[in-house]
Amino acid sequence: MEPLKTDSKTSYANDIKNKFQSGENAIVKATHDVGEKMGSMASELANTASDYYKTSQTYVKQNPAKSIAIAVAAGAVAGSLMTFVSRRKN
Q: Would you say 60 and 67 are in contact if contact means Cβ atoms under 8 Å apart?
């Protein structure tokens, strides 16, 4: 009867070991999948940013006066907001 207990313990230990290994494999696969997805998303973001840059560059070349006016207005708004926030803290 003693060998059965040892075999039973060994079998139980092997079952636990197999479950941990399958869990580890699942985690490795999930991590790999997430990495691939993140890489794909980063690539899409880079492409979109590049497209926006090219579009804005073309717009500025075609409309230099408008572009300067937009930049001045954006700077004025940003400066006003910064002044408002800094005065509010004091």
A: yes
Q: What is the pTM of this model?
A: 0.49
Q: How far is CA 79 from CA 19, 70, 74, in A?
A: 60, 14, 8
Across the chain, which has 90 residues, the per-10-residue mean pLDDT values are 62 86 90 94 95 94 95 97 87
Contacts by 30-38, CB closer than 8 A, 24 or more apart: none
User: In the chain, which ranges are continuous DSSP H helix?
Assistant: 2-62, 64-89
Cβ atoms 72, 79 nearer than 8 A: no
63 φ/ψ angles, rounded to the nearest 5 degrees: -135, 70
